[in-house]
UniProtKB/TrEMBL annotation:
A matching Pfam family: Acyltransferase
GO cellular component assignments: membrane
Presence of the UniProt keyword Transmembrane helix in the record: yes
UniProt keyword annotations, A-Z: Membrane, Transmembrane, Transmembrane helix
Name of the protein: Phospholipid/glycerol acyltransferase domain-containing protein
Name of the gene: LOC115645191
Gene source species: Gopherus evgoodei (Goodes thornscrub tortoise)
InterPro entries noted in UniProt: Plipid/glycerol_acylTrfase
Transmembrane segments: 15-46
Length: 304
């Protein structure tokens, strides 16, 4: 009898330790289920709207406004409930065109919140430049088209700006998403194409940074094998985890005005310095998940 009791206790311990080992995988799975669930719900809403109103193409048409508004409300509500999302400095966005340059977290979910809040507050749609693998995600093409997401070249970006639109871009892209960390280092390399776009279109650059972004969502980018595999294949194979309901505050800095006497390299450096300044002002580094969670209960707004 005693032997059976000990055996039962040992089995319970094994089950307990097995469940502990599963926690990271459960967190990883739950994060992806929620994120892709909202993504596909957004796409479904637009497909239903398209069919109901017999719409075809011309995604810039006002006929799509109500459909866009449904998706915008969905993402704005999610950001408000799960991250207590706040947007500060929206008055720094000019009435005309501008190139919004932002730090790329493990996911661009803060950027999605920004797009929704900007449209709700200002009634403005911001076009976006995304990595090519975004367009390989099945079932979201309509969503990308309706919200002006593209993997365009320099000429297309310039034309969008010359047409009076806002355009968002993250120079760090996928590499910054996967391999930056809780110190929020900008991994831009020598990229300055975005700066040349701003110069060619004669528009200001508007820097943007989101507080606690890395505490909400993180990657396993510090594991050397994932870094090696990405650099060798360029495949987005670095696992993401998180989905922690930490406080998100997006800060928009002062615009960097167009100056014909500034080169693309100099302008890129100015933009980088501006984002680092926003980071240093609003983000404690290294980031801490517990501190970021507690900030959900902090009623005192950070200095703008």
């Amino acid at each position: 009898m005693l032997s059976r009791s000990k055996s039962s206790i040992s089995e319970q311990k094994l089950v307990f330790y097995f469940l502990l080992l599963l926690i990271p995988f459960i967190m990883l799975l739950a994060f992806h289920i929620v994120l892709f669930g909202i993504l596909y719900l957004s796409s479904l809403l637009l497909h239903v709207y398209k069919r109901k109103n017999l719409l075809k193409g011309d995604y810039s048409s006002k006929l799509w406004d109500n459909g866009r508004q449904m998706v915008i409300c969905l993402w704005d509500l999610y950001g408000k409930l799960w991250h207590g999302y706040e947007l500060h400095g929206v008055e720094n966005i000019p009435e005309g065109p501008g190139l919004i340059v932002y730090y790329h977290g493990a996911t661009p979910i803060d950027y999605l919140y920004f797009l929704a809040r900007l449209c709700n507050q200002k009634g403005r749609l911001c076009h976006s430049v995304a990595d090519h693998f975004t367009f390989k995600i099945p079932g979201i093409k309509l969503l990308l088209d309706v919200f002006g997401v593209m993997h365009g070249g320099r000429e297309e970006c310039v034309q969008i700006l010359k047409n009076g639109h806002l355009l968002g871009v993250s120079p760090g892209g996928v590499r910054e998403a996967f391999f930056s960390d809780e110190n929020y280092n900008l991994l831009w390399g020598n990229r300055k194409g975005f700066a040349q776009v701003a110069i060619d279109a004669k528009v200001p650059i508007i820097p943007m940074f989101t507080q606690n972004l890395r505490e909400g969502y993180r990657t396993l980018g510090k594991i050397w094998s994932f870094r090696w595999l990405y650099e060798y294949t360029r495949l987005p194979v670095v696992p993401l985890y998180g989905g922690f309901p930490v406080k998100f505050r997006t800060y928009i800095g002062d615009p960097i005005p167009y100056d014909p006497n500034v080169s693309a390299a100099e302008l890129a450096e100015k933009a980088k310095t501006a984002i680092q300044s926003l980071r240093d002002r609003h983000q404690k580094t290294p980031g801490n998940i517990l501190r970021a969670l507690l900030e959900r209960f902090d009623k005192h707004q950070k200095d703008d």
